[in-house]
Amino acid sequence: MPLTSKRPQPAELPQGSIVATLAERPQVDFELAFYTGILNSLPDYSDVLRAQSANFTLKGEFEEGLRVDQTLAELRPGDPDIHYNLACRYALLHQPDLALDELNRAVTLGYRDFRYMLQDRDLESIRKDPRFRTLIRKHADR
User: Fold this and answer.
1) How many angstroms from the chain centroid is the CA of residue 40?
2) Mind listing the pLDDT tens digit for each residue in 76-109?
3) Which of 49, 50, 84, 136 qualifies as a cystine partner to 106, CB 3.0-4.6 A?
């Protein structure tokens, strides 16, 4: 017979307990708090910074996510995915010049998922910019 464990529901936990408080939080809020605790001790932990950036995006906290992405770009300047994410963040904040600069940097560093780039909702604010189309045409054929 397999062992199963039932996850306790918030109403089943002692009121006021830390476990009850955590159980009532949405997952993204829990992760933001959890990762903040890790980053307080290990501020350059890039895997945690990436997760934290994604969670800020999920919550619509783009300015906070921008700060995290800028830190990641400083820590790993040669990583095309980090620069792609930074481009997305600038696009979400309606900063097209910075978004296109970072997108170009990401492509120069090796980012090549042009199909995704054309569909990524985060880039919606720059997709009609002629510089975006030029970047795609220039690099997609390589």
Assistant:
1) 19
2) 999 999 999 999 999 999 999 999 999 999 999 9
3) 84
Out of 29, 44, 65, pick the residue that ends a domain.
65
The stretches of the chain forming alpha helices (DSSP H) are: 18-24, 27-41, 46-59, 62-75, 80-92, 96-108, 114-119, 130-140
Prediction pTM value: 0.79
Residues 95 and 120 in one domain: yes
- The C-alpha atoms of residue 71 and residue 44 are separated, in whole angstroms, by 8
| Structural domain harbouring 44 | 14-65
Q: Is 80:110 a contact under the CB 8 Å cutoff? A: yes
Residue 83 lies in a domain: yes
